[in-house]
Design a protein that fits this description.
Length: 143
Amino acid sequence: MTLPDQLAEIREDFLGLEVRDRLQLLLEFANELPELPERYRDHPDLLERVEECQSPVFIFVEVDDASRVHMYATAPKEAPTTRGFASILAQGLSGLDAQELLAIPDDFPNTLGLTEAVSPLRIRGMTGMLARAKRQVRARLAS
């Protein structure tokens, strides 16, 4: 699987650990979810709800003039697994070229080695976040 460097590094970090340690790393990501920029804190209507997630997760993806992606996400602190997934994507996708993001395999969430540690429903939530990010990028590029 060919991945952009920052996602490949995240994936390697997870796969280099035992299953229970992967959960700890996921919790660390949950604590590192970047704050929303002020322009989105004041306008939550700009964020898209990720319906595939049980917890209320919202994302927004920007594509700047240089075709660089910036992903923003919000997830409740009471949902650390989902928040961790959002953080992995926000950190791993931001800064990528739009075409790099679109080339990420749709099953990337299944490759982190977390399928033994969390429910398939949670993995499906992260897969939904990635799919929505790709859809938003395609829409931004088309406009």
